[in-house]
Design a protein that fits this description.
Helix content is 46%, strand content 13%. It is an alpha/beta fold. The strands form 2 sheets. A 7-stranded mixed β-sheet has the order 1-7-6-5-4-2-3, with helices on both faces. A 4-stranded antiparallel β-sheet has the order 8-9-11-10, covered by helices on one side. α15 crosses α17. The chain is globular. It binds pyridoxal-5'-phosphate. The site of pyridoxal-5'-phosphate has 14 residues, from α6. Pyridoxal-5'-phosphate binds next to α6.
Amino acid sequence: MTNPAADVPAWAWDEQQIRRVGMAVADILADYLGGLAGRPVHRPVPEHLKREWAAEAPPRSGTAPDEILARFTEQIAPYPLGNGHPRFYGWVNSPPAVLAVYAQVLAAAMNPSVAGGDHAAYYLERQVVRWFAELACMPDGAGGLLVSGASMATLTALATARHHAMSRVGIDVRARGLQAPGPRLLLYASAEAHGCVRKAAELLGIGSDNIRDIETDSLLQIRPDHLAATLAADRGRGDLPVAVIASAGTVNTGAIDPMAEICAICDEHEVWLHVDAAYGGPPLLLLPEYHDSREALGRADSIAIDPHKWLYIPVDAGLILLRDPERARHAFSLVPPYLRTDDQTADTAWFSEYGFEQTRPFRALKIWMAMQQLGLDGYRDLIRRDLELAEYLRARVRSAPDLELIAGGLSITCLRYRPAGWMGTPEQLDQLNHRLAGAVQQAGRAFLAGTTVRGQAVLRACLVNPGARRSDIDVLLAEILRHGAQLASRTGS
Ligand SMILES: *Cc1c(COP(=O)(O)O)cnc(C)c1O
């Protein structure tokens, strides 16, 4: 027997080599994750490395794995985004569940395409999707698929909603596109909705000018009365509402739109309800205190959830849930109904018929393994820890004379530094807070991002990090006050 790969030794690894390099990788991983807390949260990539990477040519000949791994340890691992560190509170980037990191490797070893077919990865994805549909109180028959993230989930949902709305007025958007005259298509969202809604509207030919800007109340939640009035006026004019986008946890302040009222309005106007639960999904699905929102959530037509955010799954892991998955099939499938054989029931249908991706990664394994290991109760504990720590942060901000609590929902806190006796202009205060986020990041002891809330520059801390402690929050606050005072003294001079 000749080994067909014998003349390409760099490609063909024997079991011993797989084991040896795997152990070396496990060592690197243990050092990396084990050492994170002791290193700066963030440090900039050195200029010489940036130059080297920008200029480096593709390697002509091969290099031994050990050397490549050493380069990872020296040049790449020391310069992470910062997430995983107990004092990283930027955007919505969680530390990864370790078993899910290993699951990613195992999934890659099997390396299937999960377009469809009769193999384990296919059934595991179906199971994971069903778990979430049940947790979200969706009715029997609900389904969905894993995608790269909530942006892709939103695009998939709105493409389905567009197809559904247009078929109901007798237009086949798949065949004719938006080339012929037809009713004006409209989407409904507040200014707090995530940018992916706008991207999807633009890509789907609806256009960002056709997103109705629904007003929000003092808590930055959609005002149902304004939504209802806008929908009624548009329908009266003969426009075609495609979908309402509600947020279950806005990315900016963690606001939860009034789900039950929005649901009722969508029912009345027979318009698609898409709920963006990318960030807020996990607490809503798992914690008893969100029971009411959860019931309303289950009545939505589609829901986007990001397991790669508050379920600590390594990127990428997004999920789209659909109350009636066949609608997505109508919008995406290239298999005509008359070609579907009897054994292609909804239980064996290909995922690639329900969305845009054809070759699809085995995303379910990492979610499945993390859920197996932690259990729903384990997740409840971790999410509660994040929520409690956010409460602690808000309480400390409220009691600090130089800090103002601007907004806070779920595990997000938006605050502002305003030194006692501040004499500067509002613009200067905006400038100060804008610079402050950068100054804290640069110092490397804690990390939070800047954003704007109601037009004001603020600091935003998002806690999706069960490794964080109260003492870490104390460090964050000390950093804000220290750098704030320094910047203020410069502004004042
Ligand atoms: C992160 C986020 C998105 C976008 O999701 P991606 O996974 O980045 O594509 C959409 N909506 C909300 C509320 C988010 O937090």
